[in-house]
């Protein structure tokens, strides 16, 4: 079906074959608009199965469903495409489906018949999600399209597709200046931000990476660990037990750090996160790693009785033969201070803890829009769970040291009293 439509010059690559098509840059470059139009045109020319994905999609409103609907109207394709509540169908059999990667990554494995996957807002897609998605899209001639505005240079998506892109990938940086239809209203916003905050302007409109996120809780600690070479290859020491530290979730992530205490250092050798999985899933994953385990540190909500079994997570883990302790209760602020204190002693495996590090880098204080200042509590989002588990790690690792100090003081006091 022939369709007449104009595109920015840098988007012509969308109509040429290629396994990876990576479009990144600042606001106003028409990346998402152009991809939506291109996919609809290609889907009108031949039957295509298109997966529209993003890291988190809790409802269809979080997807590009509305954008596709708008572009169908603008392209005059209302008679060809049928827009349903959760999918878009073409008369020739083309199909657009929508999914979140983080919460549905297991189901993504069943979508091997996809011709094109479009990952929108890909900046925060985790290492785990990419490693599951990419081999799933394996149909002959299948393509992976990626659009995002950069955040941190250390983000998995930026490292994987911009810093060291796959062989043959088409990587295009597209900014407002590449969009011949850039609207005047956005030009005013762009110029205003440039006058007020040059660094923010370079990130938002010119597509440069930020050095740190605004309000990042552990910005200085992450920077020190990076400059100190403590984010690197960290081998497992089979002579030392591996302790696990958990943050529990169901709809949200369950996050687990794997740590070893070696001398005065803490070695974060592994990290696991998943959602909507039973406890047995995580226990199986622990066993598959083959570590010799010490203590499993759980948050206080692990003591709550579950509706189905009438037993708590703590009880179920003890019944499975695990050595379990509950993390001492501290306020959020005190826990963050404990994490900052222990950070300087920590070494992180850059590969196995990549998703956990991404959480720590993006963990930030919530912005008070009215006062234009940061609140005293961090924002609760996708980065919270891995960061909460790290906070529990810091508190848990301090507990054995505090116990040793108390015992030492008791022995000293006893010796003095008996002298």
Automatic annotation (TrEMBL):
Q: Which organism is it from?
A: Microvirga alba
Entries under PANTHER family matching the protein: PBSX PHAGE TERMINASE LARGE SUBUNIT (PTHR39184:SF1), PTHR39184
InterPro entries given for it? P-loop_NTPase, Phage_terminase_lsu, Terminase_L_N, Viral_DNA_packaging_terminase
Q: Give the Phage terminase large subunit N-terminal domain ranges.
A: 19-207
What is the protein name given in its UniProt record?
PBSX family phage terminase large subunit
